[in-house]
Amino acid sequence: MEPRVSLFGNEIAGKFVKRLIALGHVFEESSLPRATQELVKIRASQINGCAYCTDMHTKDAAHAGETHQRLHLIATWREATVFTEAERAALALAEEGTRLADAHEGVSDETWEQVRKHYDDDQIAALIAVVATINAWNRVNVIARTPAGDYVPGQWG
Questions:
Q1: Cα–Cα dist 87/51, whole Å
Q2: Pick the CATH number of 11-144 from 1.20.1290.10, 3.40.50.720, 1.10.760.10, 3.40.50.1260
């Protein structure tokens, strides 16, 4: 499969992508656990059908020590016993924040209460930033048809 557009070979796309990369530094430097960040990125990417981001973030998570069992169960996290209550709250927020068009209320009060229970204000801000940023990346890569499968952990920094 060939991409529709080269995200780094086009001046406008390149400028946009560089800014998306810079956005990632905000939450990467936060106290939100890195494992939680990757779980959220993977779940949103699965929902959005972004093969490139799913490939990238499952490989990055595995490279950072995430277990194969947990990676295989992200799509069915509600029925899986391998995620902490805090991670479950983050995954619920990721799903509801990604599926905005599917729910008239967006993020439910119940999910928000669980997020507040497990994360401080800075971590919540980082969590919101992760959800917003990965959704932007998913849309860029799905629209551009960026092919998946060749990503190497750490390839982009």
A1: 22
A2: 1.20.1290.10
CA nearest neighbour of 2 among 140, 137, 144, 139: 144
Give the Cα separation of 78 and 61 in Å (integer).
20
Provide the residue ranges of all domains of the chain, joining segments of one domain with +.
Answer: 11-144
Can you give the pLDDT of all 157 residues of the chain as single tens digits? 788 888 888 899 999 999 999 999 999 999 999 999 999 999 999 999 999 999 999 999 999 999 999 999 999 999 999 999 999 999 999 999 999 988 778 999 999 999 999 999 999 999 999 999 999 999 999 999 999 999 999 887 6
DSSP 3-state assignment of 91? helix
Global pTM? 0.94
